[in-house]
Amino acid sequence: MDWRPGGRQRSQKKRVVLIAAVLAVLGGVVVVALSGGDEVDDTDISAAAGRWTPMSDGPLSPRIAAGDVWTGQELLLWGGRDCPAGRCDDESVPALVDGAAYDPATDAWRLLAPSPLSPRSGTSAQWTGTEMLVWGGRDADGPLTDGAAYDPVGETWRAMAPSPLSARSAQSVWTGADMLIWGGSVDASGQELFADGAAYDPATDTWRMLAAAPVQARFDMVLDWTDGEMIVWGGRAGAENLGDGAAYDPATDTWRVLAPSPLSPRVVRSEWTGTELLIWGGEQGAEALADGAAYDPAADTWRVLAPGPLTTRRGNVTVWTGTEMLVWGGGGGTGAFFFGTGAGYDPTADAWRDMPPSPGRFIPVSHWTGEEMLVWGGIVPGDGSAAVAASGDGVRYSPTG
Question: What angle do CA 315, 320, 326 make, to 5 degrees?
Answer without folding.
Answer: 50
